Amino acid sequence: MNIHEYQAKQIFAKYGVPTPKGKMALSVEEAVENAKELGGPVWVVKAQIHAGGRGLGGGVKLARSIEEVEKLSREILGMTLITHQTGPEGKLVQKLYIEDGADIKDELYLGVVLDRAREMPVIMASTEGGMAIEDVAHDSPEKIIKIAVDPAIGFQGFHGRELVFGLGITDPDEQKKLISFASKLYKLYIENDAEMIEINPLVKTGSGEFLALDGKMGFDDSALGRHPDIAAMRDISEEDADEREAAQYGLSYISLDGEIGCMVNGAGLAMGTMDTINYMGGTPANFLDVGGSANAETVAKGFEIILKNPKVKAIFVNIFGGIVRCDRIANGILEATKLVDVHVPVIVRLDGTNAPEAAEILRNANIANVIAATDLADGAAKAVAAAKQAK
Amino acid sequence: MSILVNKDTKVIVQGFTGKEGSFHAEQCMAYGTKIVGGVTPNKGGTEHLGKPVFNTVKEAVKSTGATVSMIFVPPAFVADAVMEAADAGIDLAVIITEGAPVRDMQAAKAYAVKHNMKTIGPNCPGIITAEECKIGIMPGMIFKKGNVGLISKSGTLTYEGANQVVKQGFGISTAVGIGGDPIIGLSYKQLLPMFEADPETHAIVMIGEIGGDLEIQAAAFIKEHIKKPVVAFIAGQTAPQGKRMGHAGAIVSGGAGTAAEKMAALEAAGVKVVVSPADIGKAIAEVLAR
User: Fold this and answer.
1) b/e map of B46-79 (b: 16 or more CB within 10 Å)?
2) Active site annotation includes B48
3) Among B75, B154, B213, whose Cβ lies nearest the Cβ of A268?
4) What distance lies between CA A85 and its chain's CA centroid?
5) DSSP readout, A308-319?
6) Is A154 left (phi over 0), alpha (psi -120 to 50) or beta?
7) Chain A window 291-310: which residues touch B at a Cβ cutoff of 8 Å?
8) Could you read off the pLDDT of B112-164 as tens digits, one per residue?
């Protein structure tokens, strides 16, 4: 789960990580009020969406008067912001953050992520603040410092020294401030089961203070149960409506660009099914894992969600029945076709326990647009052919 | 021969009396697995499925001589269960539970390593030595005995792969579902040398997916140390960037962990890489005919 910048900064503040003063606004009036409260003389009006690259997309702007705050708020609130992370459709701006302008001397990058290879959190830092860290990693990887911190010992002095010397910070006072900053950031990463924190940029002001000018945080979904305060920060308007609806039924759904709807049990086989469709010259319309219990209800819901996409020309149901027997799944699929009006060909491949009985059930049902397939290759080929024919 | 588990392996179940634990323990027993007891706090001294129940793993180990534990406890208790098993001297913990917090697994795995306990999973189908011992939730009947070892991050792709191998007239020695979480126990790099050393295994199927770099590490290892033929499939070639594809660990972030880079690394290491999982069986037939 991801949160907004203003929410990340609330968490930063709780841990004593310095940020500029600011306040979230849902309307232009509120934005102006916030600006007056902050006092100025310079403010930043920031679009709050769950995507990076907001500045380049025109969602972050400087104001030098209350009138300018009002004008910019009117422009940004309600705009559809397109950045390299939103996709071409962009994201509607529904919230603003009005923040004190900072006197920026230097821009750094500081983040904490899980290093999967080392199996511990790693602090990432760079002197190249304000740029996409992926680009820095690609063009000049030597400019990124990575400091793995073993949670068994926590953030120690040597981690801090590696950080400040790595960034070329020589002033003892500044060293102390940045080490304290990083140590607090690590603490809040661990204590809140964060998955990633990114501060880009972290700025050094003219007076030698370090401030988190931006804040991006993501959390481990599996740990949200023990963080009700963080779970409450969820903004469902930032999530894909279909994905969210699917999740309510225990389905894992992600929409894609293609024409062949996929319904599969298991995440790996679901990806493998998409790959096979692609390999055979077709295009997958979605990823959909119906999980272990593919019954009439979940399958019907799956059909419903897949068919919301008008581009879908055929559906490939690919189930490997294990503990749940294929004959039961076949009956579930037939029942689902009665619950939902499925107007495109449905190719069904059921393999595993009691597969022959399942094939028999599908044959006997004799439903015009339900086509049985013998294996994964056969099913994918039939789905690709059906989608081509439908054009 | 096989790897890690066989017909003599003594297994206990943590979360024995729960719904999932009961159901799958019974299935494992029906398959022939030597389940010698289970652990459920406050139910010690009772019997379940005809086997003794203990309050702690230590008592269970002392009384039954079990060396392997199959873990079915709810996600929030997984780390505790894993550490208890390690502390009690268990050799291998097979963690089936899905949804354990990453931070918990980080700590639990570090503790397991310190106590020389191997772990498989979490969020995995488990391990099966065909026709001898099933420790997990896979449908046992599709795993006919044979000479192909299998390592997979995905449950249903394990079944798909095993099924194809069997349909080609071959069979499985041992299949290990290693799980799709960001932090997992035994991985390709640790399991490949076990299969290399197992005289019964003649070829290896390795099924990976997007996210992380375990497959890249495996490729480097195969190049140096593995002489037996390896067939690989990497799921998620068509997955979009930055999206989590069902498994917690299946995500391409910042352009790293793509299927393309993993496939290229494996190919460069001499592995036969198939583009579709539908070709796993054929590829095994091909490498074993050489």
Assistant:
1) eebbebbbbeebbbbbeebebbbbbbbbebbbbb
2) no
3) B154
4) 10
5) TSTT--EEEEEE
6) left
7) none
8) 999 999 999 999 999 999 999 999 999 999 999 999 999 999 999 999 999 99
